[in-house]
Amino acid sequence: MRRWITITIAVMVWVAVATYIVLAVRLKNEERLSLHARSLSVIVADSAEMDIVLADDVLRWIDSARLNPIGAHIDSIGTDKLETMIAPHPFVRSVKAFGDIRGDVFVVVRQREPSFRIMNTERGDDFYYTTDGYIVPIQPHSAHYVPVITGDVPLPFKVGYMGRWNEADGNYEHYLQVFELLRSFVVYITSTPQWSNTFEQIVFEKGQQKGYGYCVRLVPRVGGHTILLGGLDDYESKLARLVVYYERVASNEGWNKYSEIDIRYNGQVIGR
Hints:
The chain is 32% helix and 26% strand. The strands form two sheets. It has a ten-stranded mixed β-sheet with strand order 8-6-5-4-7-9-10-11-12-13, with helices on one face. The radius of gyration is 30 Å and the shape is elongated. It has two domains: 39-111, Ubiquitin-like (UB roll) (Roll); 114-271, Rossmann fold (3-Layer(aba) Sandwich), CATH 3.40.50. The chain has helices spanning 2-33, 55-64, 79-86, 173-191, 235-253, and strands at residues 39-44, 92-99, 104-111, 114-120, 125-130, 134-137, 148-151, 163-164, 199-206, 214-220, 226-230, 260-262, 270-271. The protein is an alpha/beta fold. The chain contains five helices and 13 strands.
């Protein structure tokens, strides 16, 4: 008898649970049928570190593409369309769009980070190279404290190119090698504490060293001199020679003794 009562109670409990689930699902479905997007929020996740992409920019892109979801039924909102439209913008590294059960739609954007800026005065280029390997145009509303590279910089792409640096069309094999060395050099000086704040400009000059077709000159922040680096090969050894000069000469005789410090040649530091 007790067993029968126990079974009956258990069945009643399960029926009640099942009924609750059915009613809850029906209620949720009814709520969803009447659910429309009530708000759109753009979040630039890394805005504290840089301000290249602004939330207002993204909202303007969405409005221009007529993809603003406010007022639309929640099931008709194409978050994938929002992502597809926003992702190609040069400084957007990633984008994720989604809605919640209250009808709020969110777009979360992460930005590309500039590594250095190139101003090729011969060709008229002016762009950023980003840490993830993209060539992107200068944004008029923001400026970034990154190394500036000027002069006749050998570039493996045409003027106005945007995209991954090594995917441009054309026969630029030699320039690709030079640009790879340049990328490596900038990463080295910006990530090495001794050099991270030493140079304010890197200048490419034509034909001053046989075999290269270019000569790199460094402009330091302190002192009235420039540094002739030459080619970008073996830059660590060249900068090691510069350290010797700073420690043994500049520290004793002053930073302005010479207007040019030549560290191009192995075992030599020449002051002019």
